[in-house]
Amino acid sequence: MTIEGMCLPFRNLRDGISDRWSPCLLDPGNFRRSSLGLKLALVAVHVVFVGAVFLLDGDLIEKTVTEPWYPALYLLLFLAALIQYFVTAGSSPGYLIEARGAFLEANARIKESSASSKQPASLKNDSFIVSISSNQPEKSAHGNTSSSWSKMVMLLHPPGTSVRALTCAYCMFEQPPRSKHCHDCDKCVLQFDHHCVWLGACIGQNNHCRFWWYICMETALCLWTGVFYIIYIQTSISRTWWKDMILIVLLCGLLIIVIFLLLLLLFHSYLILTNQTTYELVRRRRIPYLRGVPEKVYPFSKGIRQNLYRFCCAQGGEYYMEQMPTQLELGELARPYTCLDLLTCRCC
Ligand SMILES: [Zn+2]
Ligand SMILES: [Zn+2]
What we know:
Layout: H1 3-21, H2 23-26, H3 28-56, H4 58-66, H5 69-90, H6 96-113, E1 123-124, E2 127-131, H7 137-140, H8 146-156, H9 163-166, E3 180-182, E4 187-189, E5 194-196, E6 201-203, H10 208-235, H11 241-273, H12 278-282, H13 304-313, E7 318-322, H14 327-334, H15 339-343
Antiparallel strand pairs: 1-2, 2-7, 3-4, 5-6
Helix pairs in contact: 5-10, 10-11
C-alpha cells in the first residue's frame, strides 16, 4: 500500500469535516471570491477610518492649505500600508514545489558542468541555499532525479529519520525541517508560519519580512489616525454632537484594532529574534522534529544578530533550508547562562 493510499481515509475524513463546517472553502472558486471579498472589506475599512478624519475634521482640511506636507505624509502612509498589504498578499511564501524545482535544476546544471562534482547544492553554514534560476520551476520539479532531493532532505534531518515520516501525504515530496503542508493553498510551504485569512495567503520564509512590515505600517497608520480623532474630540467636543458620536465610535473600534496590531507586532518581533514560527511555537509538542528539543531552547536560533540579519537581508529568490541541530548542539543551546555568557553577549 502506498503512503497516499494509507493517508486517504484521513484525507477523506478531513475533507468531510471541511465540507460540513466550511463548505465555501472547499470550492476554490468560492475560496477566491471570499478572499477577494475580505480584501475589498479591508480596503473599505481603511477608507472609512481615514476618510472620517478628512470629512469631519475641518481643521485638518484647513491644514492641507497651510501645512500640506503634514496631511500628505499621512496619506502617503495610508497608501504605503495598502500597497504593502497587496504586495504581501500577492507574494509567494516560498512553496516547497518551487524550491524543489530550483534545487533539481541547479543540481542538473552542476552535474552537467562538472561530472566529478558529487555535492548536490551549495552548503553554507549547515544549510542549503537554492537560488531560483528557472522561469518555470514547477515544470522541472517532476524530473527523474528526485532521489537527489530526498538525499538532501535526509541530510537536514537527524540520522535515522525515516523517509516515509518526512513525505507530505498531499504533495508526495520529502519535507525539509520547518516545512508544512497548507491545506488552504494545497502546497507545502518552507518555514511555514501561518495561513493569513485577511491576506488570503500563506506566510512563510519568503514573505514573513513583508508581513512584518505590513503590520508595522498598519500599526503606525492606526496610531496616527487615533491621534487625529483624539485631537478633534478635544478641540471640537461641543460643536456638533453627531460628529463627536461618530468619531467616538470609530475611536473605540480603532483602539481595539491598535491593541490587536501592537500585540501581533510584538509577537512576530519575538518570533523573528528567536528564529521561530507561529506554527512551531503553538504546536511545539506535536511537531516531530521538535519533540526531543528541551523547553526554552530555540533550535534554529543563531543569535539575535544573525537571526535579524537573515530575516531582513535574505535575498529574494533564495530558498533557505535549515539543518536540525545535533544533540550536542542542542545541549549547548540548553546550557544555562553564566556571568561570562552575559558579558560576551552569548544570546547575540
Ligand atoms: Zn504538501
Ligand atoms: Zn496557505
